[in-house]
């Protein structure tokens, strides 16, 4: 029996595969695990019928056969696998996933010396995020650096490795992608998509509140991203304005997988860890009664309320008072809140997770709410719905959409004090290094 590592599954689903001899089409369950594509007769089978190993010589392309939504994977000169997806969107997802893995096999090792540091973009408890340019290219990225010593002291090493693993498993238009990861004795580095429009938090602080149409598109794109994570049995757990970025066209990208929880379906009572940003925490997190995917839909409700009204629905500078409001205070709206938006938010902010919208059919019940009746979800996924707001970006290195508190800092790769580094067991970080796609932000659209 082949052992599949669930943490290395980047995509799975049913496809129709053409037979090698009789050319008949049969439904098979495909699993992209690491750099091998396995296929099974049923999604419950433990032993695959076959496997397609990906190498740097593998190619994938849209098939020119008459059957709809087909693509071909060529392994070597003579071996070609022809498979068909149920929709063009699904086919595109498979092609993107396979291409990204092929690219990761051909890229050379990178280090901090391969990047020119341009500016600081943000700072957190364990490190900072900086705008960097890859030497010898016009590609710009966001470089997240984390102090190993601080991670060790706070017992965050395992969660940081999990963050990197989730980056490897995911490939979605509304999620930030990991391009490279590497390390020194003192730090971990993740080279990520540079999303030049800045945080939603920055823009809401400038504008006080967003229009209903603007909130609707942001919410729809967030839903597709969270839906994708949930299908991979991942809870995001940190949905907030600071973790949602805008690209140069005004579409969102969710970043920071530092609090994700994987393999949630394997745990009967969910998880009980108290984590996240207090204003966005669902009641069941505070009560420590065990929670699962509905906590992300609660956070979506808080986000939508905050974007429409300008403040979170439950707020207090006193933590105990804030928690009591989340647990007991009825939800109130200003009189000018759009009716359909109000109805959706009320259903997302039901305190009982079993009655909350999204608790039974996950994203489907939310997507079917009348608030989104004007949207074709395939068009949302393909970014065919134009945002009503587009960030003003003069050039690639324009960092005016990021907080001046951070951008005024001097960029660089500082060496932590010996006392902060401590005696970190370097073996704890084995396997962190990764080389992926070579594409970055090379021009403004």
From TrEMBL:
GO molecular function, one term: protein serine/threonine kinase activity
InterPro entries: AGC-kinase_C, Kinase-like_dom_sf, PH-like_dom_sf, PH_domain, Pkinase_C, Prot_kinase_dom, Protein_kinase_ATP_BS, Ser/Thr_kinase_AS
Keywords from the UniProt entry: ATP-binding, Kinase, Nucleotide-binding, Phosphoprotein, Serine/threonine-protein kinase, Transferase
PH domain segment(s): 8-103
Domain Protein kinase: residue ranges: 115-372
Residue ranges of every copy of the AGC-kinase C-terminal domain listed in the record: 373-444
UniProt-listed Pfam families: PH (PF00169), Pkinase (PF00069), Pkinase_C (PF00433)
EC top class, as a word: transferase
EC number of this enzyme: 2.7.11.1
Transferase keyword on record: yes
Binding of ATP, residues: 144
SUPFAM superfamilies (alphabetical): PH domain-like (SSF50729), Protein kinase-like (PK-like) (SSF56112)
Family: Belongs to the protein kinase superfamily. AGC Ser/Thr protein kinase family. RAC subfamily.
PANTHER family, A to Z: RIBOSOMAL PROTEIN S6 KINASE
Protein name, UniProt field: non-specific serine/threonine protein kinase
